[in-house]
Amino acid sequence: MLDILKGPILALQEFFQLTGSAMRNLWRQPHYTDDILLQMDSIGVGSLPIVALTGFFSGAVMALQLGSTLAQYGQTGRTGEVVSLILVTQLGPVLTGLLVAGRNSSGIASELGSMKVTEQIDAMRALGTDPVQKLVTPRMIATAVMLPCLTVLADFIGMFGGFIIAYYIYGLDPQQYWSTTWRSLAWRDVLQGVVKPFVFSFAVSLIGCYYGLRTTGGTQGVGRATTQAVVAASVTIFFLTFFLTQIFVSQAPA
Amino acid sequence: MMPQEPEQNEGPVLRFDGLTTGFDEAPVLKNVSFEVGKGQTGIIFGAAGSGKSVLLKTAIGLVKAWSGKVQLFDQDITGLSEEQLFDVRSKVGIAFQESALFDSLTIEQNVAYPLLNQKAVKWEPKDVRPRVKEALEFVELGQTLKKFPSELSGGMRRRAAIARAVVTKPPLLLYDSPTAGLDPITAHTIISLIIKERDVDSTSALVVTHRYQDANLIANFRYNPDNGQLVGAPEETGPSTKFMVMREGSLIFHGSQQDIEASTDEYVQKFVKRPD
Ligand SMILES: Nc1ncnc2c1ncn2[C@@H]1O[C@H](COP(=O)(O)OP(=O)(O)OP(=O)(O)O)[C@@H](O)[C@H]1O
Ligand SMILES: [Mg+2]
C-alpha cells in the first residue's frame, strides 16, 4: 500500500518544489523580460481565435437552450441574466482554462520535454542559467497575466453570442438583454470570474513545465509528457473550480 | 577578456575520488577515481551505456554525487549549491553528445550565450560579437552566424557546439563523443580542432570517443601554427595524454598509450586498434 503511494507523493513533492523555486525567482535577478513577452504572445495572442470561437458558441448555445426553457415559465426576458451569470462565474473560466490547458500545457510540456531529451536543459545549466528562472518563471507569469484576460474576453464574446440568439431567435429587446446582463452580475461574481482563471493559470503553466522537465526516454517520452500534462492540468482545473466555487458560494450573502 | 587567474599551484585540474552516482536505484558510476592534470588530455573509451556521458556531467555538477568527491580546480564541488556551481562551471567548456544547441536561437546567439549568461565571465557587450565570430571562424563556420541549428548538418552542429564550448576560453574542456556518427573527413577535422584548441590555449580536456584513431591523433600529434596542419610530436615533448576505459560504470583501465596497447584485457583490447 505504501509503495503504491510513494510514486505520486514523490511526484507531488517535486511539483511543489518546482512551484516554490518558480515563485522565489519572481524576486530574484535576472528577469528574462523578453521571454515573458514571447510567452505572452504565444499563450495569449496565440489562443485568441480558439478562445473567441468557444466563447461565442458557449454563449449562443446557452441562450438557445435557456430561452426555450425559460419560456415555459414566461421568463424569456431573463435569458441574458442567466447566460451572463453562468458564463462569468463558471463556464468562461473553466472552458477557457481547459482550452488553454489543451493548447499550452501540452505546448509547454513538449517544448521543455524536447529540450530535456536533447540535453538543452543540461546545456543551460552548464552555461550559467537556471532553467527554472529562464523557462518556468516566464511561462508562469505570462499565463497568470493572459489567462484572466482571455477569460474576460471569452465572457464578453459569449454574452454577445447569447445576444445574437436572444435577439434573432427569441426576439428580445437589445436594451433589455444588455441591461439585465449587467445588473445580474454582483462584484463578487466578477471577482470569482477573474480569480478562477488566475488560479488555473498556475496549474496550466506549472504542470506543463513539470512534465516537460521530467521527460526521459527520447521522442516517445516527449509525447508521453505532453499527454500527461494535458490530462493532469485538465483534472486539476476541475478540482480547483469545484473548491473555488464552494468558497465563493459559501461567502455569498443569504 | 577574462581576468588572468593567479597561477594555480600544480594540483590537478579535475579529480574524481571514489565517485559513485546514479539516478534511481542502481548506480551508474561506481567508485570512479582519476585525475587530469594541467594541460593533460584524458581519453575515455567505453561501450554504450557504460556511463561516459554521466561522468562528464558529474564533473561539472550537473549530476550530483551519491558518495565520493569531485574536485575541480582545487575546489570540492560535491557540496556546492547550483548558484555556487555556476561560478565553477564558467571555467569549464562542454560540448554535449547531441550538440545541445538551443534550437530557438541562431548559431551566433548560441555561441554568444555563455558570454552573456555566465556571471563569472563578464564580457563587454561590444566585445561579444567579435569573439563569437572568432570562435566560429576557429571551427570554420564563419558563414553561418544567422542560421538556426536545424539548418546545419550534424557535423556542422558539432563544430558549432565546440565553438560554444571554447568561446569563453575555459581552462578545461569536456567533449562528449565529438566524432560519433561522422564521416572520417569531418571526424578528422573535429579532432584537429580539439588538438588546435589544446595547443593554442594550452587547455586540459576530457574526450569521450569510440574511435581509437581519435585518441591516437590526440596523443601523438601537435598543431603547427605556421601552416595550420597537424605534425607528429616527438615522444618526449609530446602532449600528455591519458587513456581510460569505462565498463558498466566502473573505470577498469587508466594509463598511458603504451599501457593500453599492452593490455591483455579482452574488453580493453576491443577499443585498441594498433597503428599498422
Ligand atoms: N537522465 C537520466 N536518467 C536516468 N538514467 C540515466 C540518465 N542518463 C543516463 N542514464 C543511465 O546511465 C547509464 C549511462 O548512461 P550514459 O549516457 O553515461 O552512457 P554513455 O556511456 O554515454 O553511452 P553512449 O556511448 O551511448 O553515449 C545508462 O544506463 C543510462 O540509462
Ligand atoms: Mg553518451
Explain what this protein looks like in three dimensions.
Chain A has 254 residues and is mainly α. Chain A has one domain (31-251). Helix content of chain A is 86%, strand content 0%. Chain A has eight helices and no strands. Chain A has helices at residues 2-24, 33-71, 79-117, 120-126, 131-168, 174-184, 187-213, 218-251. In chain A, helix 2 packs parallel to helix 5, helix 3 (79-117) crosses helix 6 and helix 5 packs across helix 6. The model of chain A has no long low-confidence stretch (mean pLDDT 92). Chain B has 276 residues and is an alpha/beta fold. Chain B has two domains: 12-91 and 173-271, 3-Layer(aba) Sandwich (Rossmann fold); 98-169, no CATH class. Chain B has helices spanning 52-59, 82-89, 107-117, 125-138, 154-166, 184-201, 212-220, 257-262, 266-269, and strands at 14-22, 27-36, 41-46, 67-72, 75-76, 92-95, 172-175, 204-208, 221-224, 229-232, 241-247, 250-255. In chain B, the strands form three sheets. Chain B has a six-stranded mixed β-sheet, with helices on both faces. Chain B has a four-stranded antiparallel β-sheet with strand order 2-1-4-5, covered by helices on one side. In chain B, a hairpin with a 4-residue loop joins strand 1 and strand 2 (27-36). Chain B starts with 13 loop residues before the first strand and ends in a 7-residue tail after the last helix. Residues 1-8 of chain B have low confidence and may be disordered. The complex binds adenosine-5'-triphosphate and magnesium ion. Magnesium ion binds at residues 52-53, 97, 176-177 of chain B.
